[in-house]
Design a protein that fits this description.
With 414 residues, the protein is of the alpha+beta class. The protein has 13 helices and twelve strands. The chain has three domains: 245 residues, Lambda Exonuclease, Chain A; 50 residues, no CATH class; 88 residues, no CATH class.
C-alpha cells in the first residue's frame, strides 16, 4: 500500500481515528479548505504556463491566467490525483485567486521548477514512478526544483541543491511547519529523485513553506554531508513510525485519542470518541480525564464559533434570553489626522517636525496610546483642570464608530 505524506498528516496533526474518518469519506465542511485549494490550483496553472512559454509570466498576463483558472474552478472544479472534485463557490475561487496572484508576484517560480509534481519511493527508499505498484511513500510537491546555496557565511559557494516548496493557506503557519513529517517526507522523496530531476547529486536539500495569508516564507537547508545523511536516516525512521501507527488497528479501527489535537480536526463534529467525553458529570474523573474533556470542549467551541460566524453573517440568531451573532457596539477610533494632531499637541501647538509625524503615523497609534500621551501632557497633579484638558484632547482625536462584535449577547435584565 502506498502512503501519502498529505494523508498521514491527519494522523500526525490529530489522531489515528482522523485517518479512519478520511479514508471512510466521513462528511466534513470542505468550504473551509476551498480557498487554499483554489490558490494551489491557480499557482499550478501559472507555474506550468511559465514552463510552457519558456519565460516569466508577470503583470496583466499573470492576472488574466489566474482569472481564467478561477473561472474553470467555478464551472468545472478540479482534478486531484486522478479524482475529480466538484465546482467550488465563486467567493472561495475569488479569494484563492487573490492569494495566488499576491504570492506569485512575491515568490515567482523558476523555469526549472515543477508544480504539483508527484514523486514516490519504494519501501527501501529507492525512487520509483508515482503510479508504480511498488510505491510505498508518495508526495505531491507544490513546487520542486533546483536552488542555489547560501553564500553569506561561507567562503566558497553553497552549491546547487534541491528545494521543495509547500504553500499553506492557514493563518497560523510558521517555521514549525518545516519540522512536520509531511514536509520532511517531501524532502526525503525529493532527495531520492534529485539526480533524475537535476542531472547530478545535490549539495543540500531545502525545505520551504510559504504562508499564503501573510506572505511569510520559512526555509531550512540540510547539507547532504555525512551528518546530513544521518539526519535523513532519522527522518526515514520517523516516517516508518508514522506508517506503523497508521497500520495499527484494534478491532478493525484505528484508536482515537481525544485531547489537545482535536483542535482544528475537520471530523471533530462527527467523532463519537470525542463526544463521549462530554457525557455525564463534566467534573467527574481524574485530572487527565478532566483536562482531556476541557481540550475537546475547547476544540468544539472553536469549530462551532466558525460555524456561527458564517451562519449569522446576515443577522444574529435570536434566542429566548439573548442573541448569538454580530451586534453593533459603539467604539472610539482615532481620526485620520490623529498622528499629526498628537505631535502638534506634544509640540504645544507649534508645527511638529515632519519626520516625527511620519514616525508616529508609521507606528499606527491606538486610542490607548493617545490616552497615554494625553496623560503625559496633562498629569493628574498639575491642576484641577488637567482631566478636562485630557478629555478635550481625546475627544478631538477620536470619533465614535459602530463596530460589529461577534459573540453571545444575553438580554439585559436591567
Amino acid at each position: 500500500m502506498a502512503w501519502r505524506s498529505s494523508t498521514l498528516a491527519y494522523l500526525e496533526r490529530h489522531c489515528p481515528a482522523a485517518l479512519d474518518h478520511h479514508e471512510a469519506g466521513t462528511p466534513r465542511d470542505r468550504e473551509v479548505f476551498q480557498v487554499g485549494i483554489a490558490a494551489h490550483a491557480i499557482l499550478d496553472v501559472l507555474c506550468r504556463r511559465q514552463v510552457e512559454l519558456g519565460r516569466g509570466v508577470e503583470g496583466d498576463e499573470a492576472a488574466a491566467l489566474a482569472q481564467a483558472a478561477a473561472e474553470v474552478l467555478v464551472r468545472e472544479g478540479r482534478e486531484f490525483d486522478g479524482t475529480p472534485e466538484p465546482p467550488m463557490s465563486p467567493a472561495a475561487s475569488a479569494e484563492g485567486r487573490e492569494l495566488a496572484v499576491r504570492a506569485w508576484y512575491v515568490y515567482p517560480t523558476q523555469l526549472e521548477d515543477r508544480s504539483e509534481h508527484g514523486l514516490a519511493v519504494d519501501v527501501d527508499w529507492r525512487p520509483v514512478d508515482y503510479s508504480s505498484p511498488r510505491a510505498w511513500w508518495k508526495a505531491a510537491m507544490d513546487i520542486v526544483g533546483p536552488c542555489v546555496g547560501d553564500t553569506r557565511d561561507d567562503e566558497d559557494d553553497g552549491g546547487i541543491g534541491v528545494c521543495v516548496t509547500d504553500y499553506k493557506s492557514a493563518w497560523p503557519t510558521d517555521e514549525t511547519e518545516l519540522e512536520t513529517i509531511q514536509i520532511r517526507g517531501q524532502a526525503l522523496v525529493a532527495v531520492a529523485h534529485a539526480e533524475r530531476l537535476l542531472g547530478f547529486s545535490p549539495a543540500f536539500v531545502r525545505r520551504r513553506v510559504i504562508n499564503l495569508r501573510t506572505l511569510a516564507s520559512f526555509e531550512a537547508d540540510l547539507v547532504l554531508d555525512e551528518d546530513g545523511e544521518q539526519t535523513l536516516s532519522t527522518w526515514r525512521q520517523d516516517v516508518r513510525l508514522l506508517v506503523a501507527a497508521a497500520e495499527s488497528r484494534v478491532g478493525g479501527k484505528r484508536p482515537a485519542r481525544p485531547g489537545a489535537h482535536c483542535l482544528g480536526c475537520p471530523f471533530l463534529g462527527r467523532c463519537e470518541d470525542a463526544r463521549a467525553h462530554l457525557r455525564g458529570d463534566v467534573l467527574d474523573g481524574d485530572p487527565e480525564t478532566i483536562a482531556t474533556r476541557y481540550a475537546v470542549v475547547d476544540a468544539m467551541r472553536d469549530m462551532l464559533r466558525d460555524a456561527c460566524v458564517a451562519l449569522t453573517a446576515e443577522g444574529p440568531v435570536v434566542l429566548d434570553d439573548g442573541v448569538v451573532g454580530h451586534v453593533g457596539r459603539p467604539r472610539r477610533v482615532l481620526v485620520p489626522t490623529a498622528a499629526a494632531d498628537l505631535c502638534r499637541a506634544w509640540w504645544k501647538g507649534d508645527e511638529p517636525d515632519p519626520r516625527a509625524v511620519g514616525l508616529v503615523t508609521a507606528l499606527e497609534p491606538s486610542v490607548t496610546a493617545a490616552g497615554k500621551v494625553a496623560a503625559a501632557l496633562y498629569p493628574r497633579d498639575r491642576s484641577k483642570g488637567a482631566k478636562a484638558d485630557r478629555d478635550a484632547l481625546i475627544d478631538s482625536l477620536t470619533i465614535s464608530r459602530i463596530v460589529a462584535r461577534f459573540g453571545i449577547h444575553p438580554t439585559s435584565t436591567e
